[in-house]
Amino acid sequence: MAHIVVIGAGIGGIPTAYELKEVVGPGDKITVVNNRPVFQFTPSNPWVAVGWRKREDVTIEMGPVFSRHGIDFIAKTVTKILPEENKIELEGGETLDYDFLVIAAGPELAFDEVEGLGPEGGYTQSVCTIEHAEKAYVAWEEFCADPGPVLVGAVQMASCFGPAYEFAAIMDTDLKKRDIRHKVPMTFVTSEPYIGHLGLGGVGDTKGLLESEFRDRNIKWITNAKVDKVEPNTMFVTEVDEDGNDKKKHELEFKYAMMLPAFRGVRPAMGIEGLANPRGFIIVDKHQRNPKYPNIFGVGVCIAIPPLEATPVPVGVPKTGYMIESMVTATVQNIGELLKGREPTHEPTWNALCLADLGDKGVVFFARPQNPPRNINWSAEGKWVHLAKIAFEKYFLRKVRKGVSEPFIERYLLGLVKMHRLK
Ligand SMILES: Cc1cc2nc3c(=O)[nH]c(=O)nc-3n(C[C@H](O)[C@H](O)[C@H](O)COP(=O)(O)OP(=O)(O)OC[C@H]3O[C@@H](n4cnc5c(N)ncnc54)[C@H](O)[C@@H]3O)c2cc1C
Questions:
Q1: Has 160 been annotated as catalytic?
Q2: 20 to 30 A Cα–Cα from 325, which one of 167, 216, 302, 370?
Q3: Ligand 1 site, residue 127, Cβ cutoff 6 A
Q4: Domain range list for the chain
Q5: Does the domain spanning 3-108+264-350 belong to CATH 1.10.10.410?
Q6: Beta strands in 359-421 (DSSP E)
Q7: Is the C-beta atom of 301 inside 6 A of ligand 1?
C-alpha cells in the first residue's frame, strides 16, 4: 500500500492528484499539501488586477473538493523535505511519511534580488498571486483617478514573460474603456533581447506580432534591460548592448509599475544536494524523476530547465500550462509503472503552447519542440484567442471543481490550433 504525497495544489499539483487516482490501487493513499486552502487560477490574475475578475471567480476552496474525490488534503506549508527519511516536515513540526513524493510547489518570487521591487516593501505591483493581483487592483483604481506614466515588464533572470505582455495590453484596453489612455505614457521594460523573445527565442513571428501590437497601442519599449533599483516613482534601468556591456542608463518615472520578478525554486528543497540546483529548482531526468532520490518527481515551474541560449541580460525558459500538463501525465504514468514493479518509460513532450490575452484580442503560439529549430513554430493573433482564453479559464476551473483529469490541451485545444493552421 503506497502513500503518494503531492506538494502544491496549483496548475501542476491538482491534475497530478486527479490523474494519480486513475493509476493507484484501492489501498493506496494520495495526500496533497498546499500552503493555502484554495486553488487559484494564476493565468486570470492580470484580469483581477484591473477589476475584470474577483477572487471568488478564480479561486476554489480545495478541502471539500479533494474529500469528495478520496484525496487527503492538508492546508499547511511544507518547511522541510527529508529525502533520506522519505518524510516532509510541515509548519508546526508535524511530519508526513511518503513512498512517492511529487513536488509541484511552483515558483518562489525573488523580489528581494532587486532593491525596491515588488508589492511587499517595494514600489512595484505584481500579478503573480491572487493576493498581489488584488493589491495591484486597489493601486490601479487609485492610479486611474490620477493617472500618469506606466512601466510594465520583467526583470533580469525572469523566466515568465507572457503575463507582462498580457498585462501591458490589458491595462491599455482598460484605460481606453475609461477614456483616459491619452493621459498615460506606457513603456515596456524587459530583460529579453527583443520583444517577443519570451525566453524561447521567439515562437513563429511573436517578435513581429508583439512589436506591431505595441506600436498599435503606443507602448514604447526598452529591451536588454537590467533593473538596478526602484525608488518611489522612479525606476533605475541599465540597457546593455549585445555583448552585455552598459549602453545607456535610464531613470524612468512612473505612477504605476508592474514588473515580473525572477523565480527561485522550492524553499524546503534548497541546499539539498542532488535534489535541487543552487536556486532551489528540482533536478529531474527525462522521466520527471529525481536522479538521486528516485521516489521523488518534479512537476511545473519548480523544475530545473537550463536557459535556451545565452542572452546579453540573463533570462530563463518559461514553463507554460501545456508543458506542465505533459509533465503531469508522464509523472503519473511513471508512478503507475513503479507501483506495478516496472521501470518508468513515460517522457513529457515539454512542447510550449500559450494563449496570451491582450484584453480585446490575443496572441497564441505553439512551439514543438520547445527549443528551435522546431517542427512546429507557429503564432497567430485574433479576437478568437481572447475568447479561447476565457473558455480555457472556465474549463480549467470546472475541471478542478469536478475532479476531472482529462488532458484538455491535447484533446481539444490542439485540434483548434490545427484547424486554424489549415485555414
Ligand atoms: C501571472 C501569471 C500568469 C500566467 N499565465 C499563464 C497562461 O496564461 N498560460 C500558461 O500556459 N502559463 C501561464 N503562466 C505560467 C504557469 O502556467 C503558471 O505559473 C502555473 O500556475 C504554474 O503551475 P505550478 O503548478 O508549477 O505552480 P503554481 O500554480 O504556482 O502552484 C504551486 C502551489 O504550491 C504551493 N506551495 C508553494 N510552496 C509551498 C510549500 N512550501 N508548501 C506547500 N505548498 C506550497 C503554492 O501556494 C501553490 O498553490 C502564468 C504565470 C503567471 C505568474
A1: yes
A2: 167
A3: yes
A4: 3-108+264-350, 111-262
A5: no
A6: 362-368, 376-382
A7: yes
d(Cα 85, Cα 83) in Å, to the nearest integer?
5
- Whether the pLDDT of residue 419 is over 70: the answer is no
Cis, bond preceding 373 (omega within 30 deg of 0)? yes
What number does the ligand 1 atom closest to the CA of 353 have? 11
What is the maximum span of the chain, computed from C-alpha positions, in angstroms? 65
Rounded Cα–Cα distance for residues 159 and 162 (Å):
9
Atom of ligand 1 nearest to the CA of 107: 30
Please give the Cα distance from 364 to 419 (Å, whole number).
14
Question: Mean of the per-residue pLDDT values for the chain?
Answer: 95
SS3 302: helix
Structure confidence by residue, pLDDT tens digits, 211-227? 999 999 999 999 999 99
Identical fold for domains 3-108+264-350 and 111-262, yes or no, is: yes
CA angle 290, 291, 295 (to 5 degrees): 55
- Residue with CA at minimum distance from ligand 1 atom 3: 43
Separation between Cα atoms, residue 202 and residue 370, nearest integer Å: 10
d(CA 252, CA 254): 6
Ligand 1 closest atom vs CA 105: 34
What distance in angstroms lies between residue 303's CA and the mean position of ligand 1's atoms? 12
Q: Ligand 1 centroid to 313 CA: how many Å?
A: 24
Confidence of residue 409 (pLDDT cuts 50, 70, 90): low
Distance from Cα 36 to the centre of ligand 1, integer Å: 13
Residue 98 and residue 101: Cα distance in Å, rounded? 6
Q: Express each pLDDT in 80-100 by its tens digit.
A: 999 999 999 999 999 999 999
Nearest atom in ligand 1 to 36's CA: 47
The single-letter DSSP state of residue 125 is: B
- CATH fold group of domain 111-262: FAD/NAD(P)-binding domain (3.50.50)
User: Over 80: is that where the pLDDT of 408 sits?
Assistant: no
Q: Strand 150-154 and strand 256-260: pairing?
A: parallel
Distance 106 CA to ligand 1 centre (A): 5
11-48 residue pLDDT tens: 999 999 999 999 999 999 999 999 999 999 999 999 99
The model's confidence at residue 370, banded by pLDDT at 50, 70 and 90, is confident
302: annotated active-site residue: no
3-state secondary structure of 117: coil
Give ∠ CA 283-370-352 in degrees, rounded to 5. 95
- Residues 52, 229: Cα–Cα separation, whole Å: 31
Is the model's pTM score more than 0.85? yes
